[in-house]
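Recall from the previous lesson that a structure prediction takes nothing but the amino acid sequence as input. Here we apply that procedure to BED-type domain-containing protein from Rhododendron griersonianum. The sequence below is the only information supplied.
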Amino acid sequence: MDPEDLHFDNERLNPNSDDDGQTPPPRSLGRESVGEAGSNIAAASTPIGVTVRSQSAQSAGTRRRSWVWVHSTIVKNYKNAEGIDLGPRAVCNYCPNTYTCSSNGGVGHIERHLQNKHKKFKHTVVGQDSGESGGIDTVGGMSNFVYFQSSMREGLARYVVAAEQPFTFGDDIRFEYFVKHYLQPLFSKVSRNTTRSDSLKAFIEVRKILISEIAALGSLVSFTSDMWSGRNNFGYISVTAHYIDSNWILNKKIIAFRLMEYPHNAMNIFQCIMGVFREFELVDKVFSITFDNHTANTSSIDLFKHNLTISHAGQFFHVRCVCHIINLVVSDGLKPIGPQIEKIRDAILYIATSPARQQEFEGLCVSYNVKPKKMKTDVKTRWNSTFLMLKSCRNHTDVISAYVNSKYDGGLTRADWNIAFEFMNFLKKFYAATLACSGVRYPTTCLVLNHLYNMSHTLKSHRTKPNFVAASKSMEDKFNKYFENMPTIFIVASAMDPRIKLKGVEKLLKGIGENLGITLPSTSSVTALLTSIYASYESKFASAAAPCSSSINDPCSTSNNDNDPSWFLISGLGSSETCSRSELSQYLEINLVTTEDLQSFDILAWWKKTEKTFPILSIMARDLLTPPVSSVASESAFSAGNRVLDERRSRLAPDILDCLICLKDWEDARLGIQKCHPRDEFRDYFSDSDIDAD
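The prediction returns the following tokens.
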């Protein structure tokens, strides 16, 4: 049937009727038998593969409900090739085969024929809205899909929110034409207000499911939170929940994106976040919260500690954003070489801000036998963009210098480039640490000590170099300010990493202390801390835990991790000769996990495998490995908020914005398309450069 014959009149159930209400004559399929002619009549009355279920079409007693009748046609007086009348027969719509079709004979033989011979055909059933929910019922190899307008609306609302489309998406005449003509003839467009209401309804339903899911957890929940100002000049606060489920998968769910009333002080932050905790029934399940270094955030911690029942005397409750601290450390280090960086930045800006100069520069690249490229400058306040800008210039230093030096005096020299690239190499460990600590779908608390050691090792090795004396001094001072009193969460979480454990923690702390000249917790204090924390879990969960086994076999092989000093430091540590019955001692006595690539080791998969061996310790590990060490999860919510709350939607109501941001995140999580690994947003900005080459 020509798609132009379809009409947008939603009161018509049969889209094949012409303007006079009559069904057009069947199209000819070039078949000769009476059975085949009957098949053509059925195919013409309804689109192939579609059955229309109408509440008033037929009585329940006379209607044939099986999906096989979409692909077969009953001919009452079927005549074979000899002209003999065989009575009622079911004729396949796609081949000459015929079958008996008595009312009490069943349709299994027809099903088997369709499943074996015509697997590519699928069955679609169109239903009227009657409170039922549509869905897919799979029968053998055939799919039996039931269409309902209400289910379509729910799916449309979820898509609109997850894909960040406007509420008018389903009300567009072109979209309606496409769906009616090529997907579903009975589709009717959905208004903006209806999609808005459906989105809120879906948000409420998914939120109920999420609340039930978190309530059933056997572990605690950690949170990240941050504040953001939208283009409408209103302040918003984001709250993200992090938890490890029963399958040992680390989940990240944005549970609130709320309007934040001024002033943005500690009391308002506390009240807003506590309201979210109560709404999601999380008051008794809070383990930690990760903030950046904003004064109001830090001041609110005492309010939380006085109003929440926090485990372990609150020593794990407040986690400072490690990435924010690294940013402060590197920013101080950039100041001494500011003049050289500024000259390079000005040169790139000079080329990039003029199409004519950019064209001249690309022509000069050809003469220098290098690949032409569009120059892009950095963002002064984001050191990672400066790092990537320098990496993007490595193959174009001569041509950049030649071009800008021919245009104005005081241009670039080889010494400027040498200092800039030397500092770029110096920042590699800081950049790697920032990326690793920004992850939200894998544990990061157990990684911090490794990266602190790598950064401290870099500072120690460069502090005597002439170009780095001032930079190293200022960076070490800032580094020591935040990590001289090492957060205990990083220590105990690293001990829960089977690659590190207690002996590895001791070596990392000793190495960091020696590199920076500071005193960090001793071996005895770390052991006492770990034993005390385990005792609290043992007293709480010992009665419900099954007895642990006496030993566990770990895969061991030669390690090949020469690029990471921290793993080289830890390697070679063996097991203790002492023996104890406690799970903690059993765990600490087994050999360290050593694989070919320690950095790609899946720590959650390891704990899932050994959960029955260490039932109590695994609960402790689940809580300690959950907290994120950066607030990047909240910052990703602000990126989505910036896209949703654009200049055309700057007047969105706060409850709608909360719905859009949260439901999108939940849908992305359901579909498995949340970002699993951190990616610097500026890498896309410099994507046309060779920034991935070393």
